[in-house]
Amino acid sequence: MVKTAFCIIDQQRYDMTDGMRLAELGPNLQAAIKKDYPQAHDNSFICSEHLVHYRLVKMDQMIANDYQQNDQINAQLSKILANHTYQVVDVNNELEHSLTFGQRVADGVARFGGSWAFIISFIAVMLVWMFINVVPLFTHHFDPYPFILLNLFLSMVAAIQAPLIMMRSKSGR
Q1: What whole-number percentage of the chain has pLDDT above 90?
Q2: pLDDT above 70: residue 173
Q3: 106: domain range?
């Protein structure tokens, strides 16, 4: 059995699935409906068709309020700009000039250390290093397998590069 209810607006019978009780609506929509229909109460039913109308009216009011607020802000800004002169400052340029030598070095290392050029060149150097020390081209291998010297260099690069990258991120850039 399908439950039905009478719409508070047009007094027509509708399925309960075709609308809502006022108690299910937000306080603004409830107030607007109760203002137009004083006999309405929280258990009153409103059909979807009429509910859409009230929601559109509410949206129109919100948009009109936003336009009004924007006009007020624009008027205030125009008044401020008309009364004062402002100098445009290039924030990036100011920041570049305020960095210390260490911060500039950290930025440069972090910029290169996080680039594809660094990654590709680093892989190439490691491959050449391993090739020279594995393939019997020379009579003496300066870092035979398991490449302890290469491991040492990799650890040193990481030990130096990590604090520089952290300094770059600490400076907020």
Answers
A1: 51
A2: no
A3: 99-170
Confidence of residue 161 (pLDDT cuts 50, 70, 90): confident
5 forms bridges with which residues in the sheet? 14
Quickly list H helices, the chain.
Answer: 27-36, 48-83, 91-98, 101-113, 116-134, 148-170
Q: Are residues 124 and 66 in the same domain?
A: no
pLDDT digits (tens, 9 = 90+) for 91-110: 888 887 888 888 888 788 77
Last residue of a domain, one of 83, 111, 131: 83
Say whether both 107 and 149 belong to one domain.
yes
Domain tally, the chain? 2
| SS3 label, residue 89 | coil
CA distance 170 to 44: 60
CA 28/CA 117 separation, integer angstroms? 60
Identify whether 119 is part of a domain: yes
Q: Classify residue 91: in a domain, yes or no.
A: no
Query: What are the two backbone dihedrals, phi and then psi, of residue 10, each rounded to the nearest 5 degrees?
Result: -110, 0
Question: What DSSP string describes 7-22?
Answer: BTTT--EEEGGGEEEG
